[in-house]
Amino acid sequence: MDKMKKLFLVANMMLLLVTTSGQSLAGEENYELNPHSFIVQTKPLRIEKKYDLLIKMLEDSITDREAKAWHYYQLACVYAQKQDSIKSFKYLYEYINLTCFARDILSDSDWESLYHTASWRQLKDSIIVLYLAKYPSITDKELSVKLWLHGIDDQRNRTLQKNNKQFLLFGKITDEQNEINKKALEERNEFVWHLLKKQRYLPTYSNVGKEASDAAFLIVQHASYQKKCGFLLERMKNSVENNEITKYIYTIFYDRYLIKNQQKQCYGTQYMAYMSSPSNTGVKIFLPIADEKNLNARRLSMEMPTIEEFAEKTGIIYQYHPEYERLPYKKVIKIITGNEVNLKPRE
Question: From CA 11, how far away is CA 44, in angstroms rounded?
């Protein structure tokens, strides 16, 4: 806790350094730090570890045209692969906005070889300071940081998978990294589960900040114990009324809880892709919905688009079947798929 207080006390100094350094490029938060086309283009050089050629290519790009943030970031990554921590961190601090791109940096596999260094620990501390500076009024800063970092780990193979260059290059990760990921999964699931059982509510925005609260939500969504989390629903409903979590999060959490327990969902947020036979083509379907004739009224009350609009956006063909209303969950699943299957909601 003492360390967390010290980090927060120097937040203003760190912010001053960020705004007065070469991070004017950092305003480009809409840019990808790891452009897929560039990673694919340079794959042979990376595999053969021809890092000097990569560096020259990037330096020529910076010289020949207006530099983008990702050019400097890729230089930092290549130097990290060369184990040159001085130059790699120099480029990060001078040209990359550590606030905007924190999640990308912390999930990028290029930095794994430097995790053991004091320079990486200092960088991580700097990122944490900048993260906390966004939430000066939260009541539990230490918990916020833990949940935020756990959330980044949770998304490594989801929204942040683009940063896993080890997988992009070789189509697999090392056995060692696989074990590390497995242990991290067990630790974050156990941490969040014990937290929920102790607090009896999902951490809120005033408690830990939006990013950490959303991270806790996603971790629960991806965990096997989500079906046991019914005790959170009443407090979550109160949190929605107090603007402590969004209606969107509540509807997804509630629907997923119902589906996990093989009950019909309430808001129509959960759908599933499966292979239909005999055509063997992919089909996306909504999982069973309760009181479907009044579904859009419920969705509108939670400021959601109609089910027809949502279906069009997600590429799902929606059709209301009044005869399904009185049938139980499993029976509807069997009719829809032609099989007695245990469909799981989409991740």
Answer: 41
pLDDT in tens, 113-153: 999 999 999 999 999 999 999 999 999 999 999 999 999 99
- Each residue of 105-128: b (16+ CB within 10 Å) or e? bbbbbbbbebeebeebeebbebbb
| Residue from 194, 191, 302 nearest 245 by CA | 302
The answer to whether 245 and 253 have CB atoms below 8 angstroms apart is no
Percentage of the chain lying above the pLDDT 70 cut: 86
Q: H/E/C letters for each residue in the chain? A: CHHHHHHHHCHHHHHHHHHHCCHHHHHCCCCCCCCHHHHHHCHHHHHCCCHHHHHHHHHHHHHHCCCCHHHHHHHHHHHHHCCCHHHHHHHHHHHCCCCCCHHHHHHCHHHHHHCCCHHHHHHHHHHHHHHHHCCCCCCCHHHHHHHHHHHHHHCCCCCCHHHCHHHHHHCCCCHHHHHHHHHHHHHHHHHHHHHHHHHCCCCCHHHHCHHHHHHHHHHHHCCHHHHHHHHHHHHHHHHHHCCCCCHHHHHHHHHHHHHHCCCCECCCCCEEEEEECCCCEEEEEECCECCHHHHHHHHHHCCCCCHHHHHHHHCCCCCCCHHHCCCCHHHHHHHHHCCCCCCCCCC
pTM to 2 decimal places: 0.85
